[in-house]
């Protein structure tokens, strides 16, 4: 026999490897592992049975991962015609759908697809059934250290495919009950300022929120309140329990049963989960409540930690890919933090003698302080920072939203069809939200960025509580001193003086090369820009801050937007940054042939363009050699063959380099054979985007480099590419291959597919 907590720990241990496996074995290998686990289960030794459960659950997780990758093998070679159901939509051009039937074959589980920038021929709402012909692509994300992992997120959300509609025909115009309800509330609140928050709180739809509102929530650490999350599901369950208990006062004794409030709480939580469209956080909370209720009704007293372990195991058994979800681990740690906080640092008993208001205020402050302190490790790891005013903001916002706004909002959901009453309730909710956001907007403090050095320091809350409660500061002061020194050394670590790094960031279509030495940075190009954002805001600045690097200088190769798009954002973040370019713009230092300069002990030499020519476009790119006396890197921008040949006439022998940045993203108009022979390099690095409209890089260009003895790397395949240089030794690491090789980081689909 095995105990339930032991069984649950074995389940968790079996599924956790999905977080760090570099590859998923083939089905025969999984079946072989499963057979080994079943053989272990035959033995009577308890340890072997726990091992058997771990192995069997590991196989269950591997099967789930393998199943999630199946659509990449089945449906990306040619257009697919299938019946789909709309699951989420903004009513315009962004939709999520599930493929439920292809031909006569029904699919279980259905496969999720995301459509972006797609207008359908008829008005669309959740629940409609369509017959669509789709061109499907596997999810592909830009991968940089410390950046948002869109591939992992997509697989955790069961949305592995991106689609483009070739043909669409509606089969059923009927919206689902939730979809129709959502449309009714959307129309009723269309004129309200805080419609986005109302839809987020009522239905978990956050697409209508403006960027300004999202920034306020981020700055104040209150984003968790503004959607149907685990907190709201738990609150709904509590309301259901209270309603059932109140109803029991009016029932005869023989009709009162202790299970009724528990079942009522589960029912209201289920309704709230349904309203949220069964989004993953809400569904996980509802499943956790089912497990808690089952344990509660089992007739045994379970400890908080046992319930916690059982809930984690149950959720992972139901959906092993949940292990990839950051929001899941944030919820897990939040619950663990609450249990740990109340057990190890209980609220002083004298507080219970205070007046009602002060007692509850102290309890709220105590709870929020504990969560803030103990959630710091994941705050740093996932969000790369923390809100300095989160404690104060949540002290007001949590009870205000939970006990005032949310009940009125749910009343509005029920009564929205009654013209005068529904309209009054929505205006009241809007006014309350207006008051709340005025308070949040003018709070002092805000978001504080933290770099990767704080990952270890984030655990100081957990360690400090353990040291205090176990009295280690008295019994083992030397150990505490050693731990303190280790934390300080780790947080103050600096790279070796002789070492420097070159990183080609994965910015999609564009170019951004980071040269880092002694904690300072010189950038060659700054990526692309688009309406409402640029590569510096989304990738470069967060990457620099996460690595505790300060940019001092920027070289802009030429005027095209995909190379200078992030410059203004970098200048806003670091006003003192110097800019060098061949553009002859105000406040730009020149970058023309023959110029030499030094930065952080590295030598820079410009080989193109000549100052006497006013070359524009690709052939006006500033070509720079970077060298430390041993290692040489040639940066070429977007120069094309005519400029390459002109440059070679005077500089043939001087262009030898170890590594070259591939000109013009690997276009056939660049990378002429004479240039490659003159450089005589060992590796070529290209910054390209998958699925780009120009089908870059050219297969002929890649073959040309390989014939000349170069090793080819590009950001579409490798993600971020980093070169560590130390004296005459250097090493190239790609994100997918070496930095973080994970099965969910693979290049999914056809290898040659780069359209």
Q: Which secondary-structure class do the elements indicate?
A: alpha/beta
How many domains make up the 3D coordinates? Answer: 5
Distance between the termini: 56 Å
The overall pLDDT, averaged over residues, is 89
| Biggest beta sheet summary | 8 strands, mixed
Alpha plus pi helix count: 28
Q: Report the C-alpha radius of gyration, rounded.
A: 29 Å
> Within the largest sheet, what's the order of strands?
15-14-13-10-9-8-23-24
Low-confidence stretches: none
Beta-strand residue percentage: 15-25%
What would you call the shape?
globular
How many DSSP-defined strands? 24
Pfam families: Competence, DUF4131, Lactamase_B
Protein name: ComEC family protein
Membrane topology: Multi-pass membrane protein
Organism: Dryocola boscaweniae
What would you say this structure looks like, in words?
- It is globular, with a radius of gyration of 29 Å.
- It is of the alpha/beta class.
- The strands form five sheets. The chain has an eight-stranded mixed β-sheet with strand order 15-14-13-10-9-8-23-24. A seven-stranded mixed β-sheet has the order 16-17-18-19-20-21-22.
- It contains 28 helices and 24 strands.
- The protein folds into five domains: 4-68, no CATH class; 75-175, OB fold (Dihydrolipoamide Acetyltransferase, E2P) (Beta Barrel); 187-449, no CATH class; 454-491, no CATH class; 499-745, 4-Layer Sandwich (Metallo-beta-lactamase, Chain A), CATH 3.60.15.
- Helix 8 runs antiparallel to helix 9 (259-275).
- A hairpin with a 2-residue loop joins strand 11 and strand 12 (533-534).
- It is a multi-pass membrane protein.
- Its main location: membrane.
- Keywords: Cell membrane, Membrane, Transmembrane, Transmembrane helix.
- Pfam families: Competence (PF03772), DUF4131 (PF13567), Lactamase_B (PF00753).
């Amino acid at each position: 026999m095995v105990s339930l907590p032991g069984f649950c720990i074995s389940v968790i241990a079996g599924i956790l490897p999905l977080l760090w496996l570099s590859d998923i074995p083939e089905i025969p290998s999984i079946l072989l592992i499963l057979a080994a686990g079943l053989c272990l289960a035959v033995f009577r030794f308890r340890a072997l049975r726990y091992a058997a459960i771990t192995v069997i659950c590991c196989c269950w997780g591997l099967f789930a991962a393998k199943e999630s990758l199946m659509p990449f093998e089945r449906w990306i070679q040619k257009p697919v015609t299938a019946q789909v159901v709309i699951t989420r939509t903004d009513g315009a051009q962004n939709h999520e759908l599930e493929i439920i039937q292809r031909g006569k074959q029904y699919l279980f589980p259905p496969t999720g697809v995301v459509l972006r920038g797609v207008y359908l021929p008829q008005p669309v709402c959740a629940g409609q059934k369509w017959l669509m012909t789709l061109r499907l692509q596997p999810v592909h994300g830009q991968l940089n250290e410390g950046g948002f992992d869109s591939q992992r997120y997509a697989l955790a959300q069961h949305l592995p495919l991106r689609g483009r509609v070739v043909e669409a025909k509606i089969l059923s115009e009927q919206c689902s009950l939730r979809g129709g309800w959502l449309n009714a509330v959307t129309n009723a609140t269309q004129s309200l300022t805080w419609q986005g928050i109302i839809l987020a709180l009522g239905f978990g739809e956050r697409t209508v929120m403006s960027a300004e509102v999202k920034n306020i929530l981020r700055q104040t650490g209150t984003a968790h309140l503004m959607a149907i999350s685990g907190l709201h599901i738990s609150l709904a369950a509590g309301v259901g329990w209270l309603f059932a208990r109140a109803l029991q006062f009016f029932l005869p004794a023989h009709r009162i049963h202790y299970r009724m409030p528990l079942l009522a709480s589960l029912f209201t939580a289920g309704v709230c989960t349904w309203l949220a469209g069964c989004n993953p956080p809400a569904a996980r909370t509802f499943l956790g409540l089912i497990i808690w209720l089952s344990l509660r009704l089992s007739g045994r007293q379970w400890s908080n930690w046992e319930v916690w372990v059982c809930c984690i195991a149950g959720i992972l058994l139901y959906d092993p890919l949940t292990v990839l979800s950051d929001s899941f681990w944030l919820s897990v740690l939040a619950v663990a933090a609450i249990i740990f906080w109340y057990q190890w640092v209980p609220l002083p008993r004298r507080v219970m003698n205070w007046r009602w208001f002060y007692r509850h205020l102290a309890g709220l402050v105590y709870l929020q302080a504990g969560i803030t302190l103990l959630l710091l490790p994941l705050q740093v790891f996932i969000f790369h920072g923390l809100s300095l005013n989160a404690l104060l903001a949540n002290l007001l916002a949590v009870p205000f939203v939970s006990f005032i706004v949310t009940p009125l909002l749910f009343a509005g959901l029920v009564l929205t069809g009654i013209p005068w009453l529904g309209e009054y309730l929505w205006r009241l909710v809007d006014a309350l939200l207006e008051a709340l956001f005025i308070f949040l907007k003018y709070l002092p403090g805000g978001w504080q960025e933290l770099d990767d050095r704080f990952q270890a320091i984030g655990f100081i809350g957990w360690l400090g509580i353990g040291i205090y409660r176990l009295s280690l500061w008295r019994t083992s002061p030397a150990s505490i001193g050693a731990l303190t020194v280790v934390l300080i050394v780790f947080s103050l670590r600096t790279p070796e003086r002789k070492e420097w790094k070159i990183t080609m960031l994965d910015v999609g279509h564009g170019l951004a090369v980071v040269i880092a030495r002694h904690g300072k940075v010189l950038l060659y190009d700054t990526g692309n820009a688009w309406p409402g954002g640029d590569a510096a805001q989304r990738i470069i600045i967060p990457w620099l801050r996460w690595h505790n690097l300060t940019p001092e200088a920027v070289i802009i190769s030429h005027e095209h937007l995909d190379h200078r798009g992030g410059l203004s954002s970098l200048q806003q973040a670091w006003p003192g940054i110097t800019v060098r370019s061949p553009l002859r713009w105000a406040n730009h230092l020149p970058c023309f042939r023959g110029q030499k300069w030094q930065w952080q002990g590295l030598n820079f030499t410009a080989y193109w363009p000549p100052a006497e020519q006013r070359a524009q476009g690709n052939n006006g790119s500033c070509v720079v050699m970077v060298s430390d006396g041993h290692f040489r890197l040639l940066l070429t921008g977007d120069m094309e063959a005519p400029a390459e040949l002109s440059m070679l006439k005077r500089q043939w022998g001087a262009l030898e380099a170890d590594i070259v940045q591939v000109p013009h993203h690997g276009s056939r108009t660049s990378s002429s054979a004479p240039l490659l022979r003159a450089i005589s390099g060992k590796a070529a690095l290209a910054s390209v985007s998958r699925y780009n409209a120009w089908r870059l890089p050219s297969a002929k260009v890649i073959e040309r480099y390989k014939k000349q003895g170069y090793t080819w790397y590009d950001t579409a395949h490798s993600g971020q590419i980093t070169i560590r240089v130390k004296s005459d030794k250097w090493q190239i690491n790609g994100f997918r291959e070496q930095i973080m090789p994970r099965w969910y980081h693979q290049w999914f689909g056809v290898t040659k597919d780069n359209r």
